[in-house]
Fold this protein.
Amino acid sequence: MASARVFTSRLASQMAVKAARPAVRAPIAAASKRTITGQTMKRQQATTLLQATTRNAFQVQRRAYSSEIAQAMVEVSKNIGMGSAAIGLTGAGIGIGLVFAALINGVARNPALRGQLFSYAILGFAFVEAIGLFDLMVAL
């Protein structure tokens, strides 16, 4: 009965290794190969085992890909973001120009409405500027 439990637990741990990610495979495989004995350990053996376990627990796992490639992909993404921000801010600049062109045109047609048209122009400027800032934040 006990041998069946040991066999099934080892079989389950081996299946877990096959299904686990590569970074997890090595510690699981090493843990499944250890055997538990009924012998009592001396205090010195216990501290040595504890030190080895803590050393292994705090080691940084290595990535499966090159960090140079990852860094290059990050830089490309930043450049794409900056390009889209430039395009979006160009659109906001054109919008601001159109708002004030309409203000000049409206004041030229009816100078009596200068104050009201100016307040509408400032409101349009605020909307266009908000769109430009939104585009800048999305691109970052």
User: Anything to note?
Assistant: DSSP finds five helices and no strands in the chain.
